[in-house]
């Protein structure tokens, strides 16, 4: 396990990128949704920095995963909570890591079951590449290519830190 | 057909402990029961959305196989399956006593040939769902929706969910089950679940004629006098008087039963002031329960119905997940053997 990044620097990047996109698109009153678990921690920090109105939403995408038919239901599923009307709203969707893009597909499917948003901006702290779906984040804290035996994990919620885990060595 | 399999878990669980059928609560530990309740909590949230559907069972076929009539259980199973995006087929089958065994197998093999993934089974004979899971259609997930006097595990679990919602815990709770315990598959499953989840005391309150002979072995205390039995209760669960199952003169009269064992406001006042009142339905007003109690502030009877959908969604998706994980496992094993 190695501390790999300065987490504050990545959060600064996310904040800066989101401010730019919101300004470009003329979005003044977005709602913020984090994907459980790491995305929820990040949403809390980034939302406060941006001054987005609370409460923030929390998504558990277990009911929308595309690997249900292979591994069954996640036994630790928690209720999703979107304590605002998403219909016609501009949504900022946050997750800690993007790789295949499957989590984001599941999250967008779930969001649409609550209503039809006006737009979704996707922000992820780390982009690991290795995409399997045509889904790209609008804002990224940092990009990184991992070796096959490496895993990355966000620890939190207080303090937030990023760990690189080496396995099978 | 009997329901006396001492260790049903080789049948109910996959090799890594996931549910693949849901037949009985016997042998299921506190951790798995808690997982079911937690998963159901997440499905309650789904029921509050504008689109009350998740795609978990999309493309799967669920057959509601009711050999015994039921309105509430069948409709909540149907809604649960539809909210999981499954295709649902409802079959009400009136069995003729003579050809039951054979026609049951044939019916099921035909349904299996239609590529069904799950059977929700209600049957008047104890053990019918076990028999189906074990001998008839092992690749189809079987959910027990009530079998004879044996078990009604989804009803018991929705009751546990309701208790947890209102009390936040099981430790230290005193729970009474009142009425026709003898004919009640619900009571058996409830006693089992309450003990496993750690309730302090499970008390049955009934006349001796409506108690099974082995009642103490079920893990409960027995009280014949309801006025004494109501003392200190946190939860009182009323059972329906199963008139259609009564054989011979077990009761002097309905009016006498109500006087002794009906839940009136007077009797409820003997329990703790925050005692909740539950009933699996359908209620016989004025037979087991006074209308003012059934509709009163301590009644959570309609919460039970709402929770029934969430519990059934949880159990169906967990069992289907277990079946599919197992199929995947077998496929990998077969490929390894070939390679």
TrEMBL record, chain A:
The keyword Glycosyltransferase applies. It comes from Marinobacter excellens HL-55. Its EC number is 2.4.2.9. One of its GO terms (molecular function) is uracil phosphoribosyltransferase activity. SUPFAM superfamilies: PRTase-like. NCBIfam families: PRK05205.1-1. Pfam families: Pribosyltran. Keywords: Glycosyltransferase, Transferase. CDD domains: PRTases_typeI (cd06223). Residues 3-141 form the Phosphoribosyltransferase domain. It comes from the Bacteria. This is Pyrimidine operon attenuation protein / uracil phosphoribosyltransferase.
Automatic annotation (TrEMBL), chain B:
Carbamoyl phosphate binds at residues 72-73, 122, 152, 155, 281-282. GO terms for molecular function: amino acid binding; aspartate carbamoyltransferase activity. Residues 171-318 form the Aspartate/ornithine carbamoyltransferase Asp/Orn-binding domain. It comes from the Bacteria. L-aspartate binds at residues 100, 185, 240. One of its GO terms (biological process) is 'de novo' pyrimidine nucleobase biosynthetic process. PROSITE patterns: CARBAMOYLTRANSFERASE. GO terms for cellular component: cytosol. The keyword NADP does not apply. Its EC number is 2.1.3.2. Residues 20-165 form the Aspartate/ornithine carbamoyltransferase carbamoyl-P binding domain. Belongs to the aspartate/ornithine carbamoyltransferase superfamily. ATCase family. PANTHER family: ASPARTATE CARBAMOYLTRANSFERASE, ORNITHINE CARBAMOYLTRANSFERASE, MITOCHONDRIAL. This is Aspartate carbamoyltransferase. The gene is pyrB.
